[in-house]
Please model this.
Amino acid sequence: MDKRIKILYTIPNFKTAGSQFVLLSLLRKIDENVFDPYVCVEKFPESVPEDILEEKRFLFEWTGNKIQDVLNFRRLLKNNKIAIVHSWDYKSNYLEALAAKLAGVTYVYTKKNNGWSRRWRLKSFFSSHIVYDNPEMKERFFSSWFFKKRLSFIPHGVDTDIFRPMTAVPHENFNIVCIGNIGANKNQLFLIEALKYLPRKVVLHLYGKEDKNYRKELDGYIADNNLNSRIFFNGFVDNRGIPEVLSNMDLFVLTSLNEGLPVSILEALSCGVPVLSSDSGGGAKFILEKGGGYIFDIEALENLIKHLIRLVENRNELASLAKEGRSNIVANFSIQNELAAYEKLYVKMK
Model:
């Protein structure tokens, strides 16, 4: 008889969901002598990675009929004898948690963003356990006595074997990079505004899917300020291609207005690239206080400019930050650390 703990990971899809990379890292490294992992998606089943076997996959489409959806998901859990559901859904789908509760199945979700609403409260109420990855979330969302015994803090980690320093191609420019969706929340315009005050050798490389209206706004500003030759839009980069991109960059800058725990910062530091970041919800500050970069004031452009000018002119400080950042990730934010924490939690919850 198979005594392994049967875990079902749920995620909207493997096409657009940002959590897919963390989930895949955990799924591929989990101890299968102890755990029997499965994956359930809502759509785009054709995008599920090939190394996830067919018999390990489920497709469940939420129709909008709440009662029927809850009963059908409950049936899926019961029929497949799932012991634990672990949700990586970025949405506040409380019906999933309710179905698990009715099935007598342990339900845990990982809180990754700063969104909060009545639906999030319901999802949290029906959950057996909640994991948060940003220390400020505990006070922000889960300070009630009700959550006291059902909370765990587990920071995200990156695979330090994949995200590692690589030999850079010699270059004359000072390359700044920002990787992430190009849109209002990521606030790339703030960084472009700072670029005006930096030496001409400083250039900016932007990677990510673009919001068309925001791109239009950026293009207008770039043209008005004659910055066309210093800013490069490179489109979406696959997760596996990020280490090579970062190998030719001198500095990673994140100007977001709101983030949970920014994985892009973890990836940059792990690849030996120093980071400047806004304090976009507490996660960036938590990462960088352990080494590898600095926080700037998103309300003060001159503060970002001051940091940038100093680092552009001081290669020794950059090199020191690069070493600090890599050491920080290996010690505190590796996927091995994250996986060990989750495996311990799963055994405890069984």
